[in-house]
Design brief:
It catalyses: 5-carboxyamino-1-(5-phospho-D-ribosyl)imidazole + H(+) = 5-amino-1-(5-phospho-D-ribosyl)imidazole-4-carboxylate. The protein has about 160 residues and is of the alpha/beta class. The protein is about 45% helix and about 15% strand. It has helices at about 15-30, 45-55, 70-80, 95-105, 120-135, 140-155; strands spanning about 5-10, 35, 60-65, 85-90, 115. Bound molecules: the ligand Nc1c(C(=O)O)ncn1[C@@H]1O[C@H](COP(=O)(O)O)[C@@H](O)[C@H]1O.
């Protein structure tokens, strides 16, 4: 069994339908990961513990998704040097712009690599994690290159009628 190098964390169970998109990409590329509900607001002790132990447990990337006042990715970035990829989850009230602004505007010193709002952002977070891991894993690098090539090949040259 491959070592778990990626943690997918989210502020709530309600984020899972979005964050599943990151997990699906990691599944497609054969990357082991763990999933946890961790909230800066609701489970601050859990966040602290996760951040404190992440590097020693061998995590190389943390994908963190949250919606609304989305402090989770930034707080996690403040607690661990493991790179944090943030996914702004789409919200009903403000369409996820609230999540995006909460995640993207980090102060100098504690970066979060912020993805697009919603499903595209979650999938891209998986791909970003894969790209980071592929730097030290040539088999994965090949799988990622193949995945990218297959995607390009699936795009028709001309638009089709439905
Ligand atoms: N933004 C955060 C954090 C956090 O940043 O710590 N914890 C929960 N939440 C968000 O609250 C939204 C609503 O959560 P509920 O559906 O559980 O009420 C979710 O999108 C979650 O990410």
């Amino acid at each position: 069994m491959a070592e778990t190098r990626v943690g997918i964390i989210m502020g709530s169970q309600s984020d899972w339908p979005t964050m599943k998109g990151a997990a699906e990409i990691l599944d497609e590329l054969g990357i082991a990961y763990e999933t946890r509900i961790v909230s800066a607001h609701r489970t601050p002790d859990r966040l602290w513990e996760y951040g404190k132990t992440a590097a020693d447990r061998g995590l190389h990337v943390i994908i963190a998704g949250a919606g609304g006042a989305a402090h989770l990715p930034g707080m996690m970035a403040s607690k661990t040097r493991v790179p944090v990829v943030g996914v702004p989850v789409q919200t009903r009230a403000l369409s996820g712009v609230d999540s995006l602004y909460s995640i993207v505007q980090m102060p100098k010193g504690f970066p979060v690599a912020t993805m697009a709002i919603g499903a595209a952002g979650a999938a891209n977070a998986g791909l970003m994690a894969a790209g980071i891991l592929a730097l030290q894993d040539s088999d994965l690098a090949q799988r990622l290159d193949d995945w990218r090539e297959a995607l390009s090949a699936s795009i028709p040259e001309e638009p089709q009628d439905d």
